[in-house]
Amino acid sequence: MTLIPTDLSMSRITDAVRDPNREIAASSHVLDLSVGIVVCIPCFRRPQHLRLTLESLASQRTPRSFAVVMVENDAARRESAPVAAEYLSAGKLQGVCLVEKRQGNCQAINAAFETAQALFPAATRFLMIDDDEIASPDWLELMVRTAEATGADVVGGPVLPIFDDDSKPWLARHPAFCPAYDYSGAVPQIYGCGNCLITRSVFDRLGSPAFDLRFNFLGGGDCDFFVRCRNAGMTFHWTAEAVITETVPHSRTSLGWIAKRGLRIGAINYRVQSKAARTAAARARVFATMLARLPLSLVRAARLSFRSKAVVAMHPVMVAFGSALAAFGIEQRPYEASKIVS
């Protein structure tokens, strides 16, 4: 174990954060540079909830030592930094909080993973949780234990919604909120990084930046990342017991937000598939498939309408329409700061 006081390790931290667009906002008094596990947390304008996220990490039931790397992605207001400093200075968690001055989803995630790898050279497993999520008490232990037992390159787990509007519990079955899998075991791929474990070898193989900045404001950089992992022959495992809960505010349960979410999923799907298509013929097939999905989505919606509410049944149509819009260059940019409601 390499325990060093922060004041003696500032050169080490400075070396790990060489990018002039990043700066350290807070650090724990002691850093254990020999930890093998780092939890990464991108943060943006949710200081009250970040406290819940950090409390859930401080309360993990595990004998394993781990560090945290938080990334404040609002360089002007920096509302997350004082909360991070509170937990780090009190010794509840060890690690750092840095500011990534370049705004955007992928910028923040890249800053977290790159800093974690540079600052903690012995770390081989990197987990991620968002600042609107709460980890169950055994989350970290279950994720790491799964990685050890299976040798999987990537481990995923469910993010279960907790709605502020408790009058719509059926929304938990909507594809926008429902986890990709309901069982533990090997899976072909995971799609989101809100509950994931990635081994260091994955980053080594895929190169830098890990998350493509072309998805910075649209979202979906995680889906693209995991598609590239799958195409490179990496293995995935799902741990249904490693639960994270996500707080869903009223604004994200409105019909308008859910419809926009479907459009964005469609745009992400089209962007990821188009990027993976290396030839003109392959791109033409992606375009043709997108066109074919429009009428098929109506058929699927009609079938779903017999057993689901209209907002759920219309999801395939919104996804197909979102892909069509993206094919003609029309996309949302929900991760621009001006589009995000605090």
Describe what is shown at a glance.
It contains eleven helices and 14 strands. It has helices spanning 10-16, 47-58, 80-89, 105-119, 139-150, 200-206, 221-231, 255-276, 280-304, 310-313, 315-327; strands spanning 3-5, 22-27, 30-32, 37-43, 67-72, 95-100, 125-129, 133-135, 154-156, 159-163, 185-187, 195-199, 236-238, 244-248.
Tell me what you see in this structure.
With 342 residues, the protein is an alpha/beta fold. Helices cover 40% and strands 18% of the residues. It is globular. The strands form three sheets. The chain has a nine-stranded mixed β-sheet with strand order 2-6-5-4-7-12-9-13-11, with helices on both faces. Strands 8-14-10 form a three-stranded mixed β-sheet. The chain has a two-stranded antiparallel sheet with strand order 1-3.
SS strand fraction: 15-25%
* Widest sheet, order of strands: 2-6-5-4-7-12-9-13-11
Mean pLDDT over the residues: 93
Shape descriptor reads: globular
Number of E-type strands: 14
The biggest sheet, with number of strands, parallel, antiparallel or mixed sense and barrel status, is: 9 strands, mixed
Distance between the termini: 40 Å
**Which class best fits the helix and strand makeup?**
alpha/beta
Oligomeric state, counting identical vs distinct chains: single chain
By DSSP (H or I, 4+ residues per run), the number of helices equals: 11
